[in-house]
Write a sequence for this structure.
């Protein structure tokens, strides 16, 4: 489970358009090098590195050294944890409701089927 401050870092990291675009690129091309990522943005490499630092602190990006460069990978676990925090309770409620509706519909279909046999 993620702490409140960890979730705050994720939300803060995702709040910036450029960082979301960076995540999209990293997701599309796992192992993308920092230089390749930076080439997609009209900002300095230092600005890209600052954005990456925020994404890494939020644990949304994992980087690994590859010689003199770094390869980037997306880590969706923080987003999944946040999603589950708010949807698990609602999912359970609606699953229960859908089960009930299914049972009622099946019972009504069986009753109608018996009525047409007579």
């Amino acid at each position: 489970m993620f702490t409140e401050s960890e979730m705050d870092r994720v939300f803060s990291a995702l709040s910036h358009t450029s960082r979301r675009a960076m995540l999209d690129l990293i997701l599309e091309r796992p192992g993308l090098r920092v230089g390749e990522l930076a080439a997609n943005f009209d900002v300095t490499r230092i600005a890209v590195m600052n954005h990456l630092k925020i994404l890494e602190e939020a644990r949304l990006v994992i980087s690994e050294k590859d010689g003199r460069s770094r390869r980037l990978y997306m880590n969706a676990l923080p987003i999944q944890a946040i999603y589950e925090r708010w949807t698990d309770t609602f999912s359970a409620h609606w699953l229960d409701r859908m089960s009930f509706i299914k049972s009622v519909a099946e019972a009504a279909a069986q009753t109608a089927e018996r009525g047409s046999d007579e």
